[in-house]
Amino acid sequence: MATMKVNRTLECEGLACPLPVVRTKKAMEEMKTGEVLEIRATDSGSVADLQSWAKRTGQQYIGLKEENGVFRHYIRKSDPTETKEERKFPHTIYNEELRKKLSEGEALHIVDVREPAEFAFCRIPGAKSIPLGDLEERIYELDPSQDYVVVCRSGNRSDMACQLLMEKGFINVINAVQGMAVWTGEIEKDEVN
Amino acid sequence: MTAMGTQKVTAKELTTIILNKEDLFILDVRNESDFSDWKIEGISVDIINIPYFDLLDDIAPALDAIPADKPVVVVCAKEGSSIFVAEQLAEAGLNHVSYLEGGMKSWSEYLEPVKVADLSGGGELYQFVRIGKGCLSYMVLSNGEAALIDTSRMIDQYQRFMQKKGVELIHAIDTHLHADHISGGRALAQRYGAAYHLPPKDATEVTFEYEKLVEGRDITVGQETIKVQPIYTPGHTIGSTSFLIDNTYILTGDILFIDSIGRPDLAGLAEDWVGDLRDTLYSRYKVLSEELIVLPAHFGKVTELGIGGLVAGRLGTLYSENPGLNIEDESEFRRTVTENLPPQPNSYQEIRQVNMGKIAPNIEEQREMEIGPNRCAVHDK
Fold first, then answer.
1. Which residues form the Rhodanese domain (chain B) (predicted)?
2. Which of A9, A47, A119, A187 sits CB 3.0–4.6 Å from A129 for a disulfide?
């Protein structure tokens, strides 16, 4: 598997409990909201422990890849206010309608503005990945006259992305307001070894 | 890294405390899901779960929960996190706190030898209680020879016991192809050049040579003094075989337990084997003497542990008190053993493959497969 883009990588190979969780906690405290941490651990106990720790502390456990006895965990530092923030962008679509359009074969252009690690583990088939933080500099990859559906995990980052796109002269962008967190339609992910 | 004063307790010592029903408080610092799946149980044990990662900044939640008037043992998966927590508790001034050496890994592997009886021909019968997992194995010793039945994976512990007793293994026997634990029978037999016996109907896919268990063809331990007499009793698996020892003890494998009965679904043929299971429990065992002492291959609840940890029951008493032997209606019996069963043991399919010799995982992988409760009885919830 190609190396996934993350903000920081923590080497915990050879370390036993409690050290992987202790170091993860410390690293997350130093990181910014929205950043993704990769933790490489060899202790199989790290799997259930990091998932449980993330859940109890409100961090987003994105996924796990195992290769050659190394567990690679991906955790995104969550903003506690993220889910409560007021959404401003007026044009929205619910997952059910989006799913229906896709299943009817409508050729939609979907832009996924989550972090690469989130995108790698679960995405709508055919979606294009441009993390929110990269959107401005990669905006040339998109066509202002084209229609876009913008998606993220919970509708917040995509809301911001839609606003940015409107400012940049895009005519028809829609926020998938419910996000991947509750997406029940078809998904695609990177090959796992 | 252990601070001075942090005391440890071994799985053996903890077993003694539990079997003696001494007061004990356990702080289990594993994650919630591991704790809810499987934990240390005992009649006099109070246990709570606070994951160690909730105690990284502040030990107060643990301090608040720990009683002052009984010994406390901190437990985790392997021991690292429990040492971490126990050290902080010691620093906070508690001096009645220790940690379990080797954690739940050691707890799962420890075997407590419990003497069942002296046998009429001068031999002895021992039960090995794998208290952390609920598995029971048996050793018949006579005149320098030994036979082991339903051997656990940790064969070094049996070997040390046999050295101490001055006996050599000549037979390793499995009552059936196990699905909840990896059998040490074949490996130990190889070590001693002993015979490894299996019921042929359970062994159709095995990749190794073995001795076929045949009903009535007795196995002798110690110059014809002790007879181990196989009785074909299908139901948990199609090959399941019971053993009569010294005309007094019946080893029932995973067919009949003290407070429950075996489940017929672990080899994938529940519907086919329900009839066999009922026939074994309600007809084949019924004609045997009520005075026989039943020695099963598992226990489900700590309340089944008797004096010194012995798990045993009189057959006649089981016929009046075991709920699995008191289901008159055949269709109700069918429902009991095929519907609403407890979850299947972890990795039971892979464990069967190991016991057939089809896969050979390393020791760490074997441990991983066996983690958790055994759940071989229909009433294990």
1. 20-116
2. A119
